[in-house]
Task: structure prediction
Amino acid sequence: MQKKTSLNKRNQLFSQQIVQWYLEHGRHDLPWRKKVTPYRIWISEIMLQQTQVKTVIPYFKNFIKKFPSQKSLSEASEDQVLAAWSGLGFYRRARNIFATKEIIKNNYRNRFPNEFEHIIELPGIGKSTAGAIMSLAYLDPHPILDGNVKRVISRFLKKELDLLKEAELWKLSKEMVNRDDCFSYTQGIMDLGATICKPSNPSCLECPVNSQCLSAFNVSSAKKNKTASVKKVIEMNLSLILTKKSLLLVKNENDSIWKNLWLPFDSGSIKNHIKNFKLATTQKIKHELTHRTLEINLKTYSSLKELEIETNQTYKWIKKDRIEEYGLPKPISKVIKEL
Ligand code: SF4
Result:
């Protein structure tokens, strides 16, 4: 019993110290923290799911500039949402944003739901993202459990992260939540994990919880993954056809990472038409994804006019000065910008 009381006290102190530290040292200038609405928190949390803060900032600002509110997003097409997401990667997140805003429009009269049970039902929102939205947008204390939080909590209690079960981590995370100021606590623990209790070389000296942390000044360097797998290389052969003012793109309807984005034609699928165009350039583009390397063999052809193509694929001649209205994968939009 004695042990449990002291553990509870340590957890309580942890959450108070995180709040205090956030108020003094947190990243208050992040754009989604300056003006807090459920809509802005939702968009930022989805963007942050697989991307670092510094990468997200310009994309968040751009997205909010295009769609400042739930209402403005409600009328957007999937193309427009993908275009606003272009370059950020993991496009499933953008497709989920589109699906979610449709549900919010149809079922919640364009108001972001405020109950955990409803939020977690939305596409792309798991328990941790729903918890963050509840704590940050509605000030209703809920635990979160991303990679940073797992690391901080497991180190604080000196528990081997690999051996902890997910359910146990959720229980610990729930115990730690500060019920008086869940906003500062939630932002604080995310900031602490990202800036102080980093995967390797944590800055224990600057850490607000170092007096209670059971691993303070004693964290072994992150183990290198000896069995790091070699990335799979995927080769793509694409043909980009251009007139002076437009380019020919096809909507990728395959269920792949680039689903519903616009790409040049697959060279094989357009080979019967290629005689109508003049080969201008050939280039190889290498693009690194998290788990794959793409090697794109891109042929550029010129055309005197916007010819019709006989195909059952959805294609469009897109004016060059309107290309930003379409969702394109980063390596393709980079090539097009350099044309
Ligand atoms: S004292 Fe060190 S190991 Fe413990 S939580 Fe802080 S930074 Fe992490």
Observations:
- The two ends are 71 Å apart (CA to CA).
